[in-house]
């Protein structure tokens, strides 16, 4: 067998594997959307589960998921970026730094149920935050920080050394070089890590069962006082997210149309994740062009 034949065989194998993965994902998404899109309506997206006998609804759960995403990203992104920048540009190369990297990698593989139990014991009980969106956001931060730190560090290390040295040679400070030269170049990589982190927020259920809770107070969307117990903007209230709601509906089996509600909620969850990914990538391209002056 000559080299050209081997190359064609290897290329065919890789193409077949890639096509299989694409078809598998397309089939999974198509199946979820096919089962659920027919159950989506304006009332379904805005009404509460209390109207379950009228067809149910996921309005509060959808809002809780989006609100939890915002809270988690507000905590995760600054800390993750700061830690990644420190590990890449400021941390000395010694055993302590290597140990920190090892700990970060181990944390990224901890099962979600363990993080949930940790959140229950420490965040909910010890710190006294109770079952709340804030507790859930802190627990999910434990999930997302390792990924954000490693992605940021690898993105900054992937910046060509010549560009960094040229910036320093022109008299820019190290911090100015990081913020004006290195971060814009590493932005696509960092954005990918942010999207992956956000996807875990949308789909996580096990950790939120022990931190955010499995029920929500009846929300008053006319009350925007964040200190009111019935305000949707209160981060210290119990909150049932969309992923938890899907699990709860299927496990309890109380609703007569539980299967239809779960199918519709699953389709909404998938569509929300897809829309978030498209928006995040558009924002990343916009920021990249703005920071690097590339049209």
From TrEMBL:
<feature type="transmembrane region" description="Helical">
    <location>
        <begin position="181"/>
        <end position="202"/>
    </location>
</feature>
<keyword id="KW-0813">Transport</keyword>
<feature type="transmembrane region" description="Helical">
    <location>
        <begin position="129"/>
        <end position="147"/>
    </location>
</feature>
<feature type="transmembrane region" description="Helical">
    <location>
        <begin position="66"/>
        <end position="87"/>
    </location>
</feature>
<dbReference type="Pfam" id="PF00528">
    <property type="entry name" value="BPD_transp_1"/>
</dbReference>
<dbReference type="InterPro" id="IPR000515">
    <property type="entry name" value="MetI-like"/>
</dbReference>
<feature type="domain" description="ABC transmembrane type-1">
    <location>
        <begin position="62"/>
        <end position="280"/>
    </location>
</feature>
<comment type="similarity">
    <text>Belongs to the binding-protein-dependent transport system permease family. CysTW subfamily.</text>
</comment>
<feature type="transmembrane region" description="Helical">
    <location>
        <begin position="99"/>
        <end position="123"/>
    </location>
</feature>
<protein>
    <recommendedName>
        <fullName>Phosphate transport system permease protein PstA</fullName>
    </recommendedName>
</protein>
<feature type="transmembrane region" description="Helical">
    <location>
        <begin position="261"/>
        <end position="280"/>
    </location>
</feature>
<keyword id="KW-0472">Membrane</keyword>
<keyword id="KW-1003">Cell membrane</keyword>
<dbReference type="InterPro" id="IPR005672">
    <property type="entry name" value="Phosphate_PstA"/>
</dbReference>
<keyword id="KW-1133">Transmembrane helix</keyword>
<dbReference type="InterPro" id="IPR035906">
    <property type="entry name" value="MetI-like_sf"/>
</dbReference>
<feature type="transmembrane region" description="Helical">
    <location>
        <begin position="12"/>
        <end position="34"/>
    </location>
</feature>
<keyword id="KW-0812">Transmembrane</keyword>
């Amino acid at each position: 067998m000559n080299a050209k034949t081997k190359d064609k065989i290897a290329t065919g194998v890789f193409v077949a594997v890639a096509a299989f993965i694409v078809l598998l994902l397309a089939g999974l998404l198509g199946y979820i959307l096919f089962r659920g899109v027919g159950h989506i309506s304006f009332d379904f997206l805005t009404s509460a589960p209390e109207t379950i006998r009228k067809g149910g609804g996921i309005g509060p759960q959808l809002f809780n998921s989006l609100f939890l995403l915002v809270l988690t990203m507000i905590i995760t992104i600054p800390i993750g970026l700061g830690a990644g920048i420190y590990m890449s540009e400021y941390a000395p190369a010694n055993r302590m730094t290597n140990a920190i990297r090892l700990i970060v990698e181990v944390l990224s593989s901890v099962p979600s149920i363990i993080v949930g139990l940790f959140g229950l014991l420490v965040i909910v009980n010890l710190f006294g935050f109770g079952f709340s969106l804030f507790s859930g956001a802190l627990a999910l931060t434990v999930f997302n920080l390792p990924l954000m730190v490693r992605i940021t560090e690898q993105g900054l290390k992937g910046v060509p050394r010549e560009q960094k040295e040229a910036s320093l040679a022109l008299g820019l400070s190290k911090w100015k070089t990081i913020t004006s030269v290195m971060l814009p170049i590493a932005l696509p990589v960092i954005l990918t890590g942010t999207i992956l982190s956000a996807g875990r927020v949308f789909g996580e259920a096990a950790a939120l069962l022990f931190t955010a809770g499995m029920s929500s107070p009846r929300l008053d969307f006319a009350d925007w006082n964040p200190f009111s117990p019935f305000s949707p903007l209160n981060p210290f209230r119990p909150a049932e997210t969309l992923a938890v709601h899907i699990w709860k509906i299927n496990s309890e089996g109380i609703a007569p149309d539980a299967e239809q509600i779960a199918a519709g909620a699953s389709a909404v969850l998938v569509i929300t994740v897809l829309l978030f990914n498209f928006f995040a990538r558009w924002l990343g391209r916009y920021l990249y062009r703005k920071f690097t002056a590339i049209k």
